[in-house]
Write a structure and sequence with these properties.
CATH architecture of the largest domain in chain B: Orthogonal Bundle
Strand content of chain A: under 5%
Distance between the termini of chain B: 54 Å
Shape of chain B: globular
Strand content of chain B: under 5%
Structural class of chain A: mainly alpha
Helix content of chain A: over 70%
Number of strands of chain B: 0
Distance between the termini of chain A: 149 Å
Shape of chain A: rod-shaped
Oligomer: heterodimer
Number of strands of chain A: 0
Radius of gyration of chain A: 51 Å
Helix content of chain B: over 70%
CATH class of the largest domain in chain B: Mainly Alpha
Radius of gyration of chain B: 18 Å
Order of helices and strands of chain A: HHHHHH
Number of helices of chain B: 9
Order of helices and strands of chain B: HHHHHHHHH
Structural class of chain B: mainly alpha
Number of domains of chain B: 2
Largest sheet of chain A: none
Largest interface: A-B, 31 and 39 residues
CATH topology of the largest domain in chain B: Rna Polymerase Sigma Factor, Chain: A
Chain lengths: ~150, ~180
């Protein structure tokens, strides 16, 4: 039995004229180049593995930092939306430029009232808050007359 | 630097300074045999090249696990066989929902393969071998083409000698029937 199982398959060689020749070819210089090709691949894999290991060590911290940044961004966006909401609903504010004229105008409004009160007051006990020089300045400012010019005209 | 035998090669690979040189010697020594072993199973040169490289890379990485009381060649052969069988298994899965199966595809690719140098008779034989189940195909190739002894095949495939003999006998019978039909 074992002899039968061990005999070479005659038919494969004799009747079909099939040799045991290898019918498979390889590209030119394939076997000459293969050892270096494999060694280079191992070296590349080693480098890739060392980068990966470094990344793996820092991965938790990187993810934590990214998470905190994302959270900070969301909080900032959320807060800025809340602040902007108040501005949308409130009346539009115009920003006035501060100028020296504003103080003059404001002072004129205030002074007008006081001046009016002064000139209409029959009560001499009310002390004038304005000196004569101040009154002069007030009138000049109203008429936009320069001080020097006023005295020239006079 | 000379490496007298396989034990020297293994020691060289395990060392720090001679590792690359020893590994190259290992590849040069066994590349052709392992290449043909894989190639007869997967037919395509490109697939064989991938599997052969994977075999040597795994051998390099696993060299510490190699027990020096066993043969380096059978160890390499076993890695190559496992890589090949896993590859074939994956390929077969991708053909589950197609009209052709993987073996039919191999037969088709054999016809148009620029690196197949066989005549008509050899093409018929290869086609017949491809119709065998892959483990039977393995046994047939290792016995018929590689001239391995049954105890060597037994060590590689972890199968008993008796089972291997039966498998080979059936493979031969089947091939002869296929060739007769044609």
């Amino acid at each position: 039995m074992s002899n039968n199982l061990d005999t070479k398959p005659k038919m494969l060689k004799e009747e079909n004229n099939i040799s045991k020749k290898n019918p498979f070819k390889t590209p030119k210089s394939y076997f000459e180049d293969l050892p270096d090709k494999i060694v280079n691949r191992i070296k590349e894999d080693k480098e890739r593995t060392s980068y990966k290991r470094t990344f793996d060590i820092f991965k938790p911290y990187i993810y934590m930092a990214a998470g905190l940044l994302a959270l900070a961004f969301l909080m900032k966006s959320g807060l800025s939306l809340l602040v902007d909401k108040e501005d949308i609903t409130s009346p539009i504010k115009t920003q006035t430029a501060y100028s020296e004229d504003d103080t003059i105008i404001e002072s004129l409004i205030t002074d007008d009232y006081l001046f009016y009160t002064y000139i209409n007051s029959e009560d001499e006990s009310i002390e004038s808050e304005f000196s004569s020089e101040e009154l002069e300045e007030y009138i000049l400012a109203l008429n936009n007359i320069e001080y020097d010019l006023y005295f020239e005209l006079e | 630097m000379q490496f007298a035998d396989d034990n020297d090669i293994v020691s060289g690979i395990k060392s720090k300074d001679k590792s690359e040189q020893a590994f190259k010697i290992l590849v040069e020594k066994y590349q052709k045999r392992l290449y043909m072993h894989i190639r007869k199973m997967v037919i395509s040169h490109a697939d064989t090249d991938d599997l052969l490289q994977e075999t040597f890379i795994k051998a390099y990485r696993g060299i510490e696990k190699f027990r020096e009381d066993s043969s380096l060649f059978t160890w390499l052969y076993r890695i190559a066989t496992n890589e090949t069988l896993n590859f074939i298994k994956k390929k077969k899965r991708s053909y589950v929902f197609t009209a052709t199966d993987y073996e039919d595809q191999l037969i088709l690719s054999l016809k148009g393969d620029e690196y197949f140098d066989g005549d008509k008779a050899e093409y018929k034989l290869q086609r017949a071998i491809l119709k065998l189940p892959e483990k039977q195909r393995l046994v047939f190739n290792m016995k018929y083409y590689d001239d391995l002894k049954y105890n060597e095949i037994s060590e590689i495939l972890k199968t008993s000698v008796g089972a291997l003999k039966a498998s080979y006998h059936h493979a031969v019978k089947k091939i002869e029937e296929i060739l007769k039909e044609e």
